[in-house]
Write a structure and sequence with these properties.
Strand content: 15-25%
CATH architecture of the largest domain: 3-Layer(aba) Sandwich
Number of strands: 30
CATH class of the largest domain: Alpha Beta
CATH superfamily of the largest domain: HUPs
Number of domains: 3
Bound molecules: adenosine-5'-triphosphate, magnesium ion
Shape: elongated
């Protein structure tokens, strides 16, 4: 072990802890917000800086604008922008816009919004693969001239057949030995739009018997007769991902090209293309494990299917794992960055439990979200010894975790709403809430004792719960030290504001919705039909009716909620971000990790 390895590495005046290892212990580390956990990518970067290989770190986040970003992309964004920021470098946002058939300006806009919302800034380094189309074409000509690429006129189906399989080598294309002049002529004619789609492609001349299928003369350019959202009808040929990606990285002077594990087998091709062209900048591709979350899917193509089939309302439906969906649901950028910190960066795929993501938003909102009262499944509670015309204003604490958030006054009157679930006529053993003859506390208000109920004679449903209150217990404490076992939230019926509250469950009913795809069962079969529930009549404190969309709140005892953009004046709409129970923290505690 060198001195460098033993000690924290100091770069640009920043202290970097390099002793954090990827074990379960990391779970403890998430408490320390400022700790950047070391991982194998940071180790590589630190070595490259220490050895003088690079004096600046340049990374990029390269989304294809064919859908909205999801939480998996957040992992890549946090990693790419995170390491660049920590080592005094820069991170580019580059749109990998090489497939005009699937890409749209709407997706470009949403991606830029989401990256900014997460808290990252690409400064002036906004690029597009399409910025380089001329140069990529010239590189294609160069490869032909070096005898490293040829125009192949097999049909797409034939190309696939000639490619061979994992166990059988491929077969050379009959066009592999076209003359240099012929290749140049065809490639030029492809560019000029003289052929239809599928007539010809430009292929790398590598090795049709390579055990790595990616090296069996991969396609570099194909003919696509579609307008591009930026270059319009200027191009009739478009580079493939593998070809455009390494060269865009090289053109931009990327030092470390971080991508997910499925590109590992493409790395030899990444290196081959750059080697053949003798480029000055040859970035190092490093692969890391994709984020997988249970009970959801993490692919733009699959998410697009949910949208187009109408199984969710839109890309930003609060049930979606998209960043815009999570934002609408009430997730904060801090909570998502925190989540990305906790999950860390490793080399092998695994599935992260959704409860970990939920833990991160609870942890954040616990500190910042004002507490208020709302009743989602109301039943009327009448305080029979409280005068009809009287009205109290009671003091309520906005956030017991943060005194600086102050207090507010909440109206109280003879008729209130409480949760129907908080009352039972014949309570079983461990039910401590309201029941006939029992006394409970109304939050910030008084002790009340139930002495009767009124029922709808036709349905036998309880319509009113009758109680008396003890005026001596104002504020919620009894001067004689009398204890109660439950505290209920409530709203004053005459003052309450009606609201629409959207309650969400998992989007899929299975932890792995794609597990039966091989058996021919589509993931859409496992969409949870009960993932959205909107109770009939919800009531909130009167002070909450004019909140701006995006405002986070805690409805006491019910969870964290966020004002939805569907809110109209006088018609507030809330999404439940997450309930209050923290399954993940409980599991950690049980395992002695917290
Ligand atoms: P999708 O299948 O959702 O479209 P993708 O990999 O095709 O994913 P890109 O737009 O190409 O989407 O992704 C941009 C970057 O984000 C890539 O570098 C990719 O490796 C990374 N990325 C995508 N999904 C994940 C994930 N689940 N976890 C970590 N990184 C991801
Ligand atoms: Mg992709």
């Amino acid at each position: 072990m060198t001195e460098q390895d033993k000690n924290p590495v100091r770069l640009d005046g920043n202290l970097h802890l390099c002793s954090y290892k990827a074990t379960n212990k990391r779970i403890h580390g998430f408490r320390m917000e400022t700790n950047k956990q070391s991982n194998f990518i940071r180790d590589i970067i630190e070595k490259d800086i220490a050895s003088g290989k690079h004096d600046q770190v340049v990374t990029r986040f390269p989304p294809e604008p064919n859908g909205y970003l999801h939480i998996g992309h957040a992992k890549s964004i946090c990693l790419n922008f995170g390491v660049a920021g920590d080592y005094g470098g820069r991170c580019h946002l580059r749109f990998d816009d090489t497939n005009p058939k699937k890409e749209e300006p709407e997706y470009v806009r949403s991606i830029m919004d989401d990256v900014q919302w997460l808290g990252f800034d690409w400064g002036e380094h906004l690029y597009h693969a399409s910025d380089y189309f001329d140069q990529l074409y010239e590189y294609g000509v160069e490869l032909i001239k070096r005898g490293k690429a040829y125009v192949c006129s097999l049909s797409p189906l034939e190309i696939r057949e000639y490619r061979g399989t994992l166990t059988e080598p491929g077969t050379n294309s009959p066009f592999r030995d076209r003359s240099l002049e012929e290749n140049l002529e065809y490639f030029g004619a492809m560019k000029e739009g003289r052929f239809g789609e599928g007539a010809h492609v430009l292929r790398a001349k590598i090795d049709m018997s390579s055990p790595n299928i990616n090296l069996r003369d991969p396609v570099l350019f194909r003919i696509v007769r579609s307008d591009h959202h930026r270059t319009k009808d200027a191009w009739h040929i478009y580079p493939t991902y593998d070809y455009a990606h390494c060269l865009s990285d090289s053109i931009e002077g990327i030092t470390h090209s971080l991508c997910s594990l499925e590109f590992q087998d493409h790395r030899p091709l990444y290196d081959w293309i750059l080697d053949q062209l003798h480029v000055r900048c040859h970035p190092r591709q490093i692969e890391f494990a994709r984020l997988n979350l249970n009970y959801t899917v993490m692919s733009k193509r699959k998410l697009a299917k949910l949208v187009s089939r109408g199984l969710v309302r839109s890309w930003d439906d609060p049930r979606m794992p998209t960043l815009s969906g999570l934002r609408r649901r009430g997730y904060t950028p801090q909570s998502i960055r925190r989540f990305c910190d906790i999950i860390g960066v490793a080399k092998s795929d695994n599935v992260v439990d959704m409860s970990m993501l939920e833990h991160c938003i609870r942890e954040d909102l616990n500190k910042t979200a004002p507490r208020v009262m709302a009743v989602l499944n109301p039943v009327k509670l009448v305080i029979t010894n409280y005068p009809r015309e009287r009205e109290d204003k009671l003091e309520a604490i906005n956030n017991p975790e943060d005194e600086s958030m102050g207090k507010r006054m909440v109206p109280f009157s003879r008729e209130l709403y409480i949760e129907r679930d908080d009352f039972m006529e014949e309570p079983p053993k461990k039910f401590y809430r309201l029941a006939p003859g029992r006394e409970v506390r109304l939050r910030y208000a008084y002790y009340v004792t139930c002495h009767g109920v009124v029922k709808d004679p036709s349905t036998n449903e309880i319509t009113e719960i009758h109680c008396t209150y003890d005026p001596e217990t104002k504020g919620g404490d009894s001067p004689d030290g009398r204890k109660v076992k439950a505290t209920l939230h409530w709203v004053s019926a005459g003052h309450a504001q009606k609201a629409e509250v959207r309650l969400y469950d998992r989007l899929f009913s299975r932890p792995n919705p794609t597990e039966d795809e091989k058996k021919g069962i589509d993931f859409l079969e496992y969409v949870n039909p009960d993932s959205l529930n909107i109770p009939d009549a919800c009531f909130i404190e009167p002070g909450l009716k004019d909140l701006a969309p995006g405002t986070n709140l805690q409805f006491e005892r019910l969870g964290y909620f966020c004002v939805d953009p569907d809110t109209k004046p006088g018609k507030p709409v809330f999404n439940r971000t997450v309930t209050l129970k923290d399954a993940w923290a409980r599991i950690q505690k049980k395992a002695g990790k917290n």
